[in-house]
């Protein structure tokens, strides 16, 4: 009887683990597919010669931000709308704005940050922005947006 209880417990834990991994893998698949298509579009349109990274940014309009270098070796970020419209692609040279570290320094100068959850470069009506999500010292969720061009605050959503 004891062996059956041990076997059942191990079987159920293993089954739960496998199902959890499958769900997480399947849930991430549409994002991976969209990022792959955006990377290919950035290469086909010759916006980038080499792709180094990409991720999805969900602002007012969802974009895939693709990082890489152009044919002259300059680092760029390409913002590809999820509709994959070539004429709606936006781009910035990374040397023309603030870095992620500088955006975080702007945040740390004015806010008490307990933990940074993520930092993403995205595209809004004002242009490229750094979206920083963090927890403050009372564990409240905060979103701040800092303009890529000059490091000025654009929008803050605090204490959620």
TrEMBL record:
Domain of life of the organism encoding this protein: Bacteria
InterPro entries: Cystatin_sf (IPR046350), TseB-like_dom (IPR041401)
Span of the signal peptide: none
Keyword Transmembrane attached: yes
Keywords associated with the record: Membrane, Transmembrane, Transmembrane helix
Pfam families xref list: TseB
Database matches in Gene3D superfamilies: 3.10.450.40
Residues covered by the Cell wall elongation regulator TseB-like domain: 37-81
Record flagged with keyword Signal: no
Transmembrane segments: 6-25
Annotated protein name in UniProt: DUF5590 domain-containing protein
Naturally occurring in which organism (per UniProt): Lysinibacillus louembei
